[in-house]
Amino acid sequence: MQISILGCGWLGFPLAQSLLQKKYRIKGSTTTAHKLVDLEKSGILPFLLSLEEEHVIGNIEAFLKDSTVLLIDIPPKLRKENAPNFVSKIKTLLPFIEQSTIQKVLFISSTSVYADDNSIVTEETIPKPETASGKQLLEAEKCLQQNSNFQTTVVRFGGLIGPNRHPIHFLTGKTNLENPNSPVNLIHQNDCISIIELIIEQDYWGKTINAVNPNHPTRKNYYAQTAKAFGLVVPQFNESQDSRGKTICSNKLIQELGYDFKNLS
Question: What b-and-e string marks burial along 245-263, b requiring 16 or more CB atoms within 10 Å of the CB?
Protein backbone atom coordinates (compact mmCIF):
# COMPACT_ATOMS: atom_id res chain seq x y z
CA MET A 1 0.00 0.00 0.00
CA GLN A 2 1.16 3.52 -0.76
CA ILE A 3 0.44 6.36 1.67
CA SER A 4 0.86 10.10 1.08
CA ILE A 5 1.65 12.18 4.18
CA LEU A 6 0.87 15.86 3.78
CA GLY A 7 3.14 17.47 6.36
CA CYS A 8 6.29 15.58 7.33
CA GLY A 9 7.05 17.68 10.39
CA TRP A 10 7.48 16.85 14.07
CA LEU A 11 4.93 14.03 13.88
CA GLY A 12 4.66 13.27 10.17
CA PHE A 13 8.36 12.57 9.60
CA PRO A 14 8.89 9.92 12.32
CA LEU A 15 5.49 8.46 11.39
CA ALA A 16 6.65 8.10 7.79
CA GLN A 17 9.86 6.42 8.97
CA SER A 18 7.88 4.00 11.12
CA LEU A 19 5.48 3.16 8.28
CA LEU A 20 8.45 2.47 6.00
CA GLN A 21 9.64 -0.12 8.52
CA LYS A 22 6.23 -1.80 8.12
CA LYS A 23 6.82 -2.02 4.36
CA TYR A 24 4.42 0.73 3.28
CA ARG A 25 5.47 2.91 0.36
CA ILE A 26 5.51 6.54 1.50
CA LYS A 27 5.27 9.89 -0.24
CA GLY A 28 5.91 12.83 2.06
CA SER A 29 5.59 16.59 1.71
CA THR A 30 7.41 19.51 3.28
CA THR A 31 7.25 23.27 2.80
CA THR A 32 11.01 23.59 3.37
CA ALA A 33 13.33 22.83 0.46
CA HIS A 34 16.34 21.70 2.52
CA LYS A 35 14.23 19.03 4.25
CA LEU A 36 13.71 17.22 0.94
CA VAL A 37 17.13 15.64 1.30
CA ASP A 38 16.30 14.28 4.77
CA LEU A 39 13.06 12.75 3.48
CA GLU A 40 14.80 11.14 0.52
CA LYS A 41 17.60 9.74 2.68
CA SER A 42 14.96 8.06 4.83
CA GLY A 43 13.41 6.32 1.82
CA ILE A 44 10.46 8.71 1.53
CA LEU A 45 9.55 10.00 -1.93
CA PRO A 46 9.79 13.75 -1.21
CA PHE A 47 7.59 16.59 -2.47
CA LEU A 48 7.86 20.33 -1.92
CA LEU A 49 4.26 21.42 -1.37
CA SER A 50 2.55 24.41 0.18
CA LEU A 51 -1.21 24.51 0.71
CA GLU A 52 -2.54 28.03 0.20
CA GLU A 53 -6.04 29.48 0.46
CA GLU A 54 -6.72 29.52 -3.29
CA HIS A 55 -4.13 27.17 -4.78
CA VAL A 56 -1.48 24.55 -4.04
CA ILE A 57 2.15 25.34 -4.71
CA GLY A 58 3.88 22.21 -6.02
CA ASN A 59 2.93 19.05 -7.89
CA ILE A 60 -0.01 17.90 -5.76
CA GLU A 61 -1.25 15.53 -8.49
CA ALA A 62 2.01 13.56 -8.48
CA PHE A 63 2.03 13.57 -4.67
CA LEU A 64 -1.38 11.88 -4.54
CA LYS A 65 -0.95 9.61 -7.59
CA ASP A 66 -1.27 5.86 -6.89
CA SER A 67 -1.73 6.37 -3.13
CA THR A 68 -4.84 4.94 -1.46
CA VAL A 69 -4.42 6.72 1.91
CA LEU A 70 -3.79 10.42 2.53
CA LEU A 71 -2.74 11.62 5.96
CA ILE A 72 -3.21 15.35 6.55
CA ASP A 73 -1.00 16.67 9.34
CA ILE A 74 -0.66 20.40 8.85
CA PRO A 75 -1.18 22.87 11.72
CA PRO A 76 -3.67 25.74 11.28
CA LYS A 77 -1.08 28.36 12.41
CA LEU A 78 -3.74 30.91 13.31
CA ARG A 79 -1.96 32.73 16.13
CA LYS A 80 -0.40 35.35 13.88
CA GLU A 81 -2.20 38.42 12.62
CA ASN A 82 -3.59 38.09 9.10
CA ALA A 83 -3.12 34.33 9.27
CA PRO A 84 -4.45 32.45 6.22
CA ASN A 85 -7.80 30.70 6.51
CA PHE A 86 -7.17 27.02 7.28
CA VAL A 87 -10.61 25.88 6.11
CA SER A 88 -10.01 27.52 2.73
CA LYS A 89 -6.79 25.55 2.43
CA ILE A 90 -8.61 22.28 3.02
CA LYS A 91 -11.33 23.23 0.53
CA THR A 92 -8.64 23.99 -2.04
CA LEU A 93 -7.21 20.49 -1.49
CA LEU A 94 -10.55 18.66 -1.89
CA PRO A 95 -10.81 18.63 -5.72
CA PHE A 96 -7.31 17.15 -5.98
CA ILE A 97 -8.24 14.34 -3.58
CA GLU A 98 -11.49 13.70 -5.47
CA GLN A 99 -9.63 13.34 -8.78
CA SER A 100 -6.93 11.08 -7.34
CA THR A 101 -6.63 7.43 -6.32
CA ILE A 102 -7.11 8.35 -2.64
CA GLN A 103 -9.84 6.27 -0.98
CA LYS A 104 -9.16 7.02 2.70
CA VAL A 105 -8.17 10.23 4.49
CA LEU A 106 -6.80 10.49 8.02
CA PHE A 107 -7.07 14.02 9.37
CA ILE A 108 -5.07 15.07 12.41
CA SER A 109 -7.23 17.36 14.51
CA SER A 110 -7.17 18.52 18.12
CA THR A 111 -9.17 18.37 21.35
CA SER A 112 -9.33 22.18 21.09
CA VAL A 113 -12.64 21.59 19.27
CA TYR A 114 -14.18 20.99 22.73
CA ALA A 115 -15.06 23.68 25.26
CA ASP A 116 -13.25 24.13 28.59
CA ASP A 117 -16.39 23.62 30.66
CA ASN A 118 -15.00 21.23 33.31
CA SER A 119 -16.85 18.28 31.76
CA ILE A 120 -15.79 14.74 30.86
CA VAL A 121 -15.56 14.75 27.07
CA THR A 122 -16.29 11.82 24.77
CA GLU A 123 -16.76 11.67 21.02
CA GLU A 124 -20.48 12.07 21.66
CA THR A 125 -19.88 15.48 23.27
CA ILE A 126 -20.99 18.32 20.99
CA PRO A 127 -17.86 20.30 20.05
CA LYS A 128 -17.93 23.96 21.08
CA PRO A 129 -14.51 25.36 20.20
CA GLU A 130 -13.44 28.55 21.95
CA THR A 131 -10.33 29.39 19.93
CA ALA A 132 -9.87 30.36 16.28
CA SER A 133 -7.77 27.26 15.75
CA GLY A 134 -10.39 24.97 17.27
CA LYS A 135 -13.18 26.54 15.23
CA GLN A 136 -11.35 26.11 11.95
CA LEU A 137 -10.23 22.58 12.76
CA LEU A 138 -13.84 21.59 13.42
CA GLU A 139 -14.98 23.13 10.13
CA ALA A 140 -12.14 21.35 8.30
CA GLU A 141 -13.22 18.05 9.86
CA LYS A 142 -16.73 18.56 8.50
CA CYS A 143 -15.49 19.46 5.01
CA LEU A 144 -13.59 16.19 4.81
CA GLN A 145 -16.08 13.87 6.50
CA GLN A 146 -19.03 15.16 4.48
CA ASN A 147 -17.26 14.42 1.20
CA SER A 148 -18.61 11.16 -0.24
CA ASN A 149 -15.69 10.63 -2.64
CA PHE A 150 -13.55 9.15 0.14
CA GLN A 151 -13.80 8.02 3.76
CA THR A 152 -12.30 10.21 6.47
CA THR A 153 -11.25 9.32 9.99
CA VAL A 154 -10.56 12.25 12.30
CA VAL A 155 -8.13 11.84 15.22
CA ARG A 156 -8.40 14.53 17.89
CA PHE A 157 -5.07 14.51 19.68
CA GLY A 158 -4.48 16.22 23.03
CA GLY A 159 -1.38 18.27 23.78
CA LEU A 160 1.59 16.74 21.98
CA ILE A 161 4.73 15.87 23.90
CA GLY A 162 7.88 14.02 22.91
CA PRO A 163 11.37 14.71 21.53
CA ASN A 164 12.16 18.45 21.70
CA ARG A 165 8.56 19.22 22.57
CA HIS A 166 7.12 19.67 26.04
CA PRO A 167 5.09 22.55 27.52
CA ILE A 168 7.22 22.53 30.69
CA HIS A 169 9.96 24.36 28.76
CA PHE A 170 7.52 27.20 28.19
CA LEU A 171 6.08 27.17 31.72
CA THR A 172 9.24 26.74 33.79
CA GLY A 173 9.83 29.57 36.24
CA LYS A 174 6.58 31.33 35.40
CA THR A 175 4.23 32.58 38.11
CA ASN A 176 0.54 33.34 38.46
CA LEU A 177 -0.43 30.63 35.95
CA GLU A 178 -4.14 29.86 35.57
CA ASN A 179 -6.10 26.65 36.08
CA PRO A 180 -3.94 24.78 38.64
CA ASN A 181 -6.60 22.13 39.25
CA SER A 182 -7.67 21.47 35.69
CA PRO A 183 -6.63 18.08 34.30
CA VAL A 184 -3.86 17.68 31.73
CA ASN A 185 -4.78 16.11 28.40
CA LEU A 186 -1.52 15.08 26.81
CA ILE A 187 -0.30 12.40 24.41
CA HIS A 188 3.23 11.26 23.57
CA GLN A 189 4.54 11.20 20.02
CA ASN A 190 5.07 7.42 20.29
CA ASP A 191 1.37 6.94 21.07
CA CYS A 192 0.36 9.18 18.17
CA ILE A 193 2.38 7.09 15.73
CA SER A 194 1.11 3.78 17.10
CA ILE A 195 -2.52 4.96 16.98
CA ILE A 196 -2.27 6.15 13.38
CA GLU A 197 -0.68 2.87 12.35
CA LEU A 198 -3.43 0.95 14.13
CA ILE A 199 -6.14 2.89 12.28
CA ILE A 200 -4.52 2.01 8.95
CA GLU A 201 -3.91 -1.64 9.87
CA GLN A 202 -7.45 -2.17 11.18
CA ASP A 203 -9.08 -0.29 8.28
CA TYR A 204 -10.81 1.98 10.78
CA TRP A 205 -12.37 4.60 8.51
CA GLY A 206 -15.29 7.00 8.67
CA LYS A 207 -14.75 7.53 12.41
CA THR A 208 -13.94 10.29 14.88
CA ILE A 209 -11.82 9.43 17.91
CA ASN A 210 -10.22 11.23 20.82
CA ALA A 211 -6.60 10.32 21.51
CA VAL A 212 -5.36 11.45 24.91
CA ASN A 213 -3.43 9.57 27.57
CA PRO A 214 -5.98 8.37 30.17
CA ASN A 215 -3.78 9.65 33.01
CA HIS A 216 -5.09 13.11 33.99
CA PRO A 217 -3.15 14.65 36.90
CA THR A 218 -3.83 18.29 37.70
CA ARG A 219 -1.76 20.91 35.89
CA LYS A 220 -0.17 22.01 39.16
CA ASN A 221 0.93 18.51 40.17
CA TYR A 222 1.98 17.36 36.72
CA TYR A 223 4.11 20.37 35.88
CA ALA A 224 5.71 20.45 39.33
CA GLN A 225 6.71 16.80 38.95
CA THR A 226 7.86 17.28 35.35
CA ALA A 227 9.90 20.39 36.17
CA LYS A 228 11.75 18.51 38.89
CA ALA A 229 12.39 15.58 36.53
CA PHE A 230 13.83 17.97 33.92
CA GLY A 231 15.83 19.91 36.50
CA LEU A 232 13.83 23.07 35.83
CA VAL A 233 12.25 25.72 38.04
CA VAL A 234 8.77 24.64 39.17
CA PRO A 235 6.06 26.96 37.77
CA GLN A 236 3.73 28.65 40.25
CA PHE A 237 -0.05 28.72 39.84
CA ASN A 238 -2.67 31.19 40.98
CA GLU A 239 -5.07 29.21 43.18
CA SER A 240 -7.34 32.14 44.06
CA GLN A 241 -9.57 31.59 41.02
CA ASP A 242 -11.60 28.61 39.88
CA SER A 243 -9.95 26.34 37.34
CA ARG A 244 -11.39 25.79 33.85
CA GLY A 245 -10.63 22.77 31.73
CA LYS A 246 -11.93 19.41 30.55
CA THR A 247 -11.15 15.72 30.85
CA ILE A 248 -10.80 14.06 27.46
CA CYS A 249 -11.95 10.44 27.47
CA SER A 250 -10.30 8.04 25.00
CA ASN A 251 -12.36 4.96 25.84
CA LYS A 252 -13.54 4.56 22.25
CA LEU A 253 -9.95 4.16 21.11
CA ILE A 254 -9.21 1.69 23.90
CA GLN A 255 -12.38 -0.35 23.46
CA GLU A 256 -12.84 -0.39 19.68
CA LEU A 257 -9.20 -0.53 18.60
CA GLY A 258 -7.82 -2.24 21.70
CA TYR A 259 -5.16 0.42 22.13
CA ASP A 260 -2.92 0.30 25.20
CA PHE A 261 -1.40 3.71 26.00
CA LYS A 262 2.27 4.01 26.89
CA ASN A 263 3.55 5.94 29.92
CA LEU A 264 2.93 9.67 29.99
CA SER A 265 6.38 11.23 30.33
Answer: bbbbbbebbeeebebebee
